[in-house]
Design brief:
six-stranded mixed sheet, two-stranded antiparallel ribbon
């Protein structure tokens, strides 16, 4: 397939940014990403899930007016909606944008709200992937919570990566482990998602998320009993990256 004119440029910029900030800490990478003209217009995409408060807190310290895109699939736990409001207020985030699917598309493709029961990929695309892609159309880059430890497909994850010929993804927590997340939340006394204490270490939509038993993988409660591993919002080169059997965090 022919390369577009934008591909070499954005690839070179991502490589230069990785070289520039390769040995920097996560907070520094976040700060530079929000201010470096080579990155451009940036948004943070947050699920307001179990670990989301770490990046949200970093943004609140550096630039609380950074656009935060929150995809409400209209099937989230009420606890997530309440937590989103609590965290936004507590941290002083001033530009949280709630993204939802167009009602006309919901009426057409999932009129009775049962699409998730027989086609989870189509449901995620309708309620999450497509609305988020539309919301990101005006940005040059977006910040994610992806980390190397989460799956083999992320073992070489860089701070900056090319997503499309015109957009980058920024992964400030790429080198963090679970213990780093826990330490950061404790030290900064950050509010926890209420479902974590009830056995939900990974939180998505209510119909497709179940509690995790002791000893299970933290992602075992997502799409339990199916081969589905992620919602589909993460693309590399325009293609969904799946984790052959490993459950991955979305954002």
């Amino acid at each position: 397939m022919a390369r577009t004119a934008m591909q070499p440029d954005i690839a070179q910029r991502a490589a230069a940014l990785n070289d520039r900030y390769r040995h920097h800490a996560a907070v520094t990478v976040m700060e530079k990403a929000l201010k470096d003209p080579e990155v451009g217009n940036v948004a943070l995409v947050s699920s307001f899930g179990a670990e989301s408060v770490v990046l949200l807190h970093m943004v609140s310290l550096i630039s609380p007016g950074t656009p935060v895109l929150f995809v409400d699939t209209l099937m989230l736990f009420q606890e997530t909606l309440d937590y989103q409001r609590e965290v936004s207020r507590t941290l002083g985030l001033t530009d949280v944008r709630t993204i939802t699917a167009e009602q006309a598309m919901l009426d057409l493709e999932d009129p009775d709200g049962t699409l998730h029961q027989f086609n989870t990929d189509a449901c995620c695309a309708l309620r999450k992937t497509v609305p988020l892609e539309q919301a990101l159309s005006g940005f040059d880059a977006w910040i994610t919570g992806r980390k190397r430890y989460q799956a083999a497909t992320r073992a070489a994850l860089d701070f900056f990566e090319v997503e499309t010929p015109t957009r980058m993804k920024i992964n400030p927590l790429a080198h963090w482990g679970r213990e780093d997340l826990e330490e950061y939340m404790v030290q900064n006394r950050l509010p926890r998602h209420p479902l974590v204490a009830k056995g939900y270490p990974s939180i998505g939509c209510a119909p497709c998320t179940s509690p995790v038993k002791p000893g299970e993988d933290p992602r075992a409660g997502r799409w339990r009993g199916s081969q589905k591993t992620e919602c589909g919002i993460h693309f590399i080169g325009g293609k969904i990256v799946r984790a052959g059997g490993n459950k991955e965090n979305a954002a």
